[in-house]
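RECORD CONTENTS
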Amino acid sequence: MPSPPEHTLLYALTVQALCFTLAVVFIVLIYAWLAYLLGNGSLRHVPGPWYCKVSNIPLSIYEILCRRSDIILDLHKKYGPVVQIAPNEVSVAYLEATKQIYGTKDRWAKSDCYLLVKEVLRILRNTSTSCG
């Protein structure tokens, strides 16, 4: 039985080494990303399940299944009035905090969507007072 040419064997070893190296680099990058999100993120002190701290996929699945509110309520029962539900999203079930965050005073930065809501409410208020 003839032995394989050396360059074919060398090529196979090189491809195998390259695949192994890429797999190791991928695993290290995933580990570093998870370590950052779980340990160094700005919301690391907020309680919540670990999988919600690293991905918004669970929240999206809850939304698709129309169970978002039920799941978030269960998370509040387990973790308390403030729960991290996604890497950059927190749910607050504390009345005073909700008033501060969503209140009419401009203490907290809000997205442009709130400006639109304020304008719609102003128009509705003006319409209702002029009709009656």
Notes: The radius of gyration is 26 Å. The chain has six helices and two strands. The helical segments are 6-40, 50-54, 57-64, 68-79, 95-102, 112-131. Residues 94-126 form one domain.
